[in-house]
Amino acid sequence: MTELRLSAFKSHRNAAFALGPLTLFRGPSGSGKSSALQAYEVLARLAGGDALGEALSLVDGGPGACVPQQARPDAQGRRGFRIGCTVEGPLGPVRIDVAVQAEPELRIVGERMTGRGRTLLSTALRDPGRRAVEAAWHTAGAAPVTRAPLPDDRLGTALLPLRVAGKTAGQRLVLDAAEQVVVALRAVFACDPRPELMRMPAAAHDGLLRGACDNVAAVLDRTRHECATRHAALVAAVGAGCRVPVGELAVREAGSGLVQAVLERKPGDGTPLERLGDGELRYLALCLVLMTGPGVLDMDPVGEVLQARQALTVLADGFDRCLDARQARELIALAVRMGERGHVRLVGAVRGTGDGDAPAEGVSVVDLGGEC
Asked: What is the pLDDT of residue 52?
C-alpha cells in the first residue's frame, strides 16, 4: 500500500498520505495520527472479510465518530465518511475508494476500484430499502460490464473472487486487481503493547503474539526453541535498548500451566518482566514484532503467497510511547533494517509538534503539525 486517502474521515478532509517502507505520522495530540492508522486498519479488516460493523468496532465512539464533525446530514438525515488507498503490485497502481453511510443506518453506499486506466468495479446504492448495492465490474466480453447485487455491509473488492468467473481477459484483470488489493491489505498487524498486561504470566502454549502483546512470555518461549539464530538476534536488539547488558530472554514456569519471561543480565541473574518499566516492555515487544513475522503473530497468513514472499505491515499507534530518545532511535533503526529485507513495512504514529526535525535515513515522516 503506497497511499492512504482520507477524503472525509474524522478530522481529515481531502487528505492523501504517501506511504513508504517505514512511515511515521508525527504531530501533537489531536492532529489526526491515530485516525490515519484507524482508517488503515478499517480497510485491512474489510479486505479480510469482516462485516462493516466488525471493522469499525475498533473505533472509539463507533461509526458515528468516523464522520467529520462539520458534516451536515442531508434531507434524509444521512451522514458518512470516505476512505481509500492505492496498492502497487504486478498490475501497477490499483486504487480503491469506499463511501460509508454511518447514520441513520450503517452501510457501504459506494465503492470504486480502478487500475490500468479503467474502472474495474463500481457499486452504488440504488434502493435504500434493500440491504444491497448495485455492482458493475469490467468484463470485456459479449457485454462490457456485468451487473449484480452485492451486500451493503461487505467490501465488494473482497467478494469479487467469489463472483467473477475469470473467463474473459477483462474478468481476469478484475480478479488480478482485487487479489492485489486484498493480499496487501490483509497482511496487516495492528500492535499497541500494553505493559500492564505484559507483566502477567501467560499460558505456556499461547504461541501467537496478540496486538496487546499480553502473551509475550509464551511467544518468547516459542522463539527460543524454534529458531536459536533469530532469538539471539532478538536478544541483541533488546539489549541495544536497555541500559544494562542483556544476556538472554529466558522463560520460567510459573505454575498452573503458565510461564513467565525473565530478562537475564547473566546466567542465574534474572529480572522478571513484571519488574521492568513501561518503556523497556514496549521496546521489547516492538522488537519482537518487527523481527518475527506473520508465522508468530496472531493474524491470518495470506495463503495465496509463498511463505518466503510474505510481506507484513505493522501498524503501531504510539510507536514511541514511553520510550526514551535512545530507545526510539534504536527501534527506528531496527525497523529500517528489517524493512530493507522487503518483508516488513511499518506505519506508526509518534509524538512531535511538526518542528521540522530531519527524519532518519530510510524513514518517511508525515508531519501533521496542528492541522489535518
From this structure: 97
* pTM for the full predicted model: 0.93
User: Please, is 238 exposed, middle or buried when counting C-beta atoms within 10 Å of its C-beta (0-12, 13-18, 19+)?
Assistant: buried
Q: Could you give the CA distance from residue 210 to residue 108 in angstroms, rounded to a whole number?
A: 29
What mean pLDDT do residues 328-339 have?
93
Three-state DSSP at 339 gives helix
193 closest CA partner among 283, 311, 88: 283
* Bridge pairing between strands 145-151 and 132-138: antiparallel
- Tell me, what DSSP letter sits at residue 89? S
* Cβ atoms of residues 339 and 333 within 8 Å: no
pLDDT digits (tens, 9 = 90+) for 237-261: 999 998 778 899 999 999 999 999 9
Contact 205, 218 (CB under 8 A): yes
| Measured distance CA(290)–CA(299) in Å, rounded | 14
Cell numbers 468495479 correspond to what residue? 121
In this predicted structure, the answer to whether residue 357 has a pLDDT above a threshold of 80 is no
User: Is residue 277 classed as helix, strand or coil in its secondary structure?
Assistant: coil
Phi, psi of 235 (to 5 degrees): -60, -45
Residue with cell 492505492: 86
Mind listing the pLDDT tens digit for each residue in 214-242?
999 999 999 999 988 999 999 999 999 98
Nearest one of 191, 97, 176, 174 to 139, comparing CA atoms: 174
Residue boundaries of the structural domains of the chain: 3-187, 199-297
Q: Residue 227 contacts by C-beta under 8 Å, 6 or more apart in sequence?
A: none
Q: Please write the tens of the pLDDT for every residue from 141-195.
A: 888 999 999 999 999 999 999 999 899 999 999 999 999 999 999 999 999 999 9
Assign 3-class secondary structure to 158-223. HHHHHHCCCCCHHHHHHHHHHHHHHHHHHCEEEECCCHHHHCCCEECCCCCECCCCCCHHHHHHHH
Q: What is the mean pLDDT of the chain?
A: 91
Residue 348: all three cell numbers together: 506508526
DSSP symbol at 71:
P
Q: Three-state DSSP class for 33?
A: helix
Q: Which three cell numbers stand for residue 242?
A: 536497555
